[in-house]
Give the backbone structure.
Amino acid sequence: MGRAILWIVALVILGGIGFAAWRLADERNFAATPFGEGARTVVVPAGSGPHVLAKLLADARVVSDERRFYTHLHWFRRGKQAKAGEYEFDGPLLPDEVLGKLIRGEVKLYKFTIPEGLRVDEASAIIGQTGLCSRQEFLATARDPASPKRFGVPGPSLEGYLFPDTYSLPRSVGCAGIVQTMVARFQRAWQNAQKQRLPEIKLDEQQAVTLASIVEKETGQSHERAHVSCVFHNRMKRHMPLQTDPTVIYALLLSNDFKWDGNIHKSDLSLQHPYNTYVIKGLPPGPIANPGAAALDAALHPMACRDLYFVSRNDGTTVFCPDLKCHNANVQKFQVQYFRHKHG
């Protein structure tokens, strides 16, 4: 009887050893075998334990087997905690490659680029296409009268303070997070521009950003921005109206729920509006677009010049003049004759 019990105990021990050996071999095989193809997306909720995580990954075909991944995580990677978020997995991956991405929190990022000189309504369309935040919600946040104080900017709205750049952000950031990130980028660019400020430039932040936005809209040539800025500074010193068409366009947009036929009519120049620099002297109440770093630098560090006028050559460049006679000749050459020849 005693011998039989010993045999049973021995068989149980041998069976246990055999099972453990099989389990270890299976674990090693599972851990060493890549799995999956194509791109798969998984959203991991906060507080997801091993069972939930294993099911999510297996259902999405990120790992080959729910039970084996649970065993791998619970028994062989005990204490490893996945961070919540949206993850994208591409191609065949080892279980530890999957787990490492989750532990490090390498969530899926959505990339978008806001070019220099876009208005808030134009930027919102780009952001809306990412799926991170709807166009309407982004616009509502940017135009909320409480937003300037909330996000720490001095303007009447967030126009001008949403820095043009390329961004890569997770879905979890939300509309407010996108705005905060863009304003933070602006603030870094503003601090860098401040280092270039000439001592005689006394503009405060809102005035400087407003001027930078006008400079940004007046030329797409980076080497011309400091020259354009010089013209506007010279005009302000002489108490001359800035007479810049981009402010007329912005006034028309504000007056018509951001609808515009694309043409400036002669009557538009006399539109009584605080943003129309043909009827007001000095700067408008706030920015008319979102300037980039070069325009911010130009607003605070204009080049030295005597010019008071400039006009487009209609080839992407600008010609400058110190007096009205010179300017009128350039208008005749580069505007009147150009369009007469073009439509003739």
Summary: Strands lie at 39-44, 85-90, 109-113, 166-170, 309-312, 318-321.
